[in-house]
UniProtKB/TrEMBL annotation:
Coiled-coil zones: none
Gene name of this polypeptide: cca
Primary role: Catalyzes the addition and repair of the essential 3'-terminal CCA sequence in tRNAs without using a nucleic acid template. Adds these three nucleotides in the order of C, C, and A to the tRNA nucleotide-73, using CTP and ATP as substrates and producing inorganic pyrophosphate. tRNA 3'-terminal CCA addition is required both for tRNA processing and repair. Also involved in tRNA surveillance by mediating tandem CCA addition to generate a CCACCA at the 3' terminus of unstable tRNAs. While stable tRNAs receive only 3'-terminal CCA, unstable tRNAs are marked with CCACCA and rapidly degraded.
Assembly and interaction partners: Monomer. Can also form homodimers and oligomers.
Organism: Neisseria chenwenguii
Record-linked Pfam families: HD (PF01966), PolyA_pol (PF01743), PolyA_pol_RNAbd (PF12627)
Keywords of the record: ATP-binding, Hydrolase, Magnesium, Metal-binding, Multifunctional enzyme, Nickel, Nucleotide-binding, Nucleotidyltransferase, RNA repair, RNA-binding, Transferase, tRNA processing
Protein name in UniProt: Multifunctional CCA protein
Keyword Membrane set for record: no
Catalytic activity field: a tRNA with a 3' CCA end + 2 CTP + ATP = a tRNA with a 3' CCACCA end + 3 diphosphate; a tRNA precursor + 2 CTP + ATP = a tRNA with a 3' CCA end + 3 diphosphate
Amino acid sequence: MFQTYLVGGAVRDALLGLDVKDRDWVVVGENAESMIRRGFQPVGKDFPVFLHPETHEEYALARTERKTAKGYAGFVFHADKDVTLEQDLLRRDLTINAMAQDSDGLIIDPFGGRQDLQNGILRHVSPAFAEDPVRILRTARFATRYGFQIAPETMTLMKNMVENGEAGALVAERVWQELAKGLMERQPRRMLEVLRECGALKVLLPEIDALFGIPQRADYHPEIDCGIHTLMVLQCAADMDLSLPERYAALLHDLGKAKTPPDILPRHHGHDLNGVEPVRAVNSRLRAPKHCAELAELVCRWHIIFHQAFRLKAATIIKVFRQTDAFRRPERFQTALNVCIADVRGRLNFENAAYPQRDHWLSLLDAANRIDAAAIAAECRRIGKPELIAGQIDRARRLQIEPLQTACKNRQSK
């Protein structure tokens, strides 16, 4: 008998009163051949998933699974007419995701997901949770999204999974996928806190984990701890509703503080330059998208210079514009400055701090762009000295911004 049930996130979010964006269905009492006869189009590679002939929503055959190797891909699936709805729900990660709804609107909840939803608890359905390391990331992400607490027994299970090496079996694409989703939630710092508590942060993002316990100057950083500061900057970026590349850059901006020589702690001079290598390592390991990777490296390398905008010479400012590619990519330059705001405000008691450097940098860039570069180049060619073009353009730009920088320094000295 053809029976379909709405399952997973659609049921969960409807019970929470949230908008349901995607609907997933489970089919009981059918097999692949009978689904095709009904007009469903097969799309699943690893297990039978079909598109409805009219709505094009995904319908998966009820299935069971068996662990055969480490990692999230090491499973063998069984999907046939004899698999029950409860057997299908049993293989799911958390009780709040293991509920179904029939065509009459009745909620099928064999594992207490509705009660856990009401109590704000994330609890694993069965010991099979430990077979899929992606569930560590998903649980951390759900804790971030809903602000739920993780059941003690589930946290213990997650810790055991990390100790058994399951977290190390995660592939880069899945780590990035879950991390990116978590970073875009309203409380992204919570995801990092959960991953650190269960030990997965040390495996997946050791460069971030290494920041915890490293002190900073109390006058600049009343929160003291570099790891705490990083979480505060990330959260500030979320509170500012910044984009994924900006939030990712906020997360990685201070990696150099874990590499600062001990003799200059807690001032961390040079942590901007020292941070470039670990940022590149994270970008490579996670296979971060190019726009995220580039901004993270840019912010790490230049955020200290950006903070010092009012003290720089005009010639230095031109060099900064060139080396950050600000003339060709002003939008990226602006997003880097947005992360700098989060860096300044991501400190204890500095949550509402002003950051006039952002507007100052943008006004300098605007002034430098007012020159007629084409005319300067044409003149250098006219007199037979094309090799002077770059220098003359820089000189013209410097003359544009020097009055602004001088006026700014005068105001600062009063």
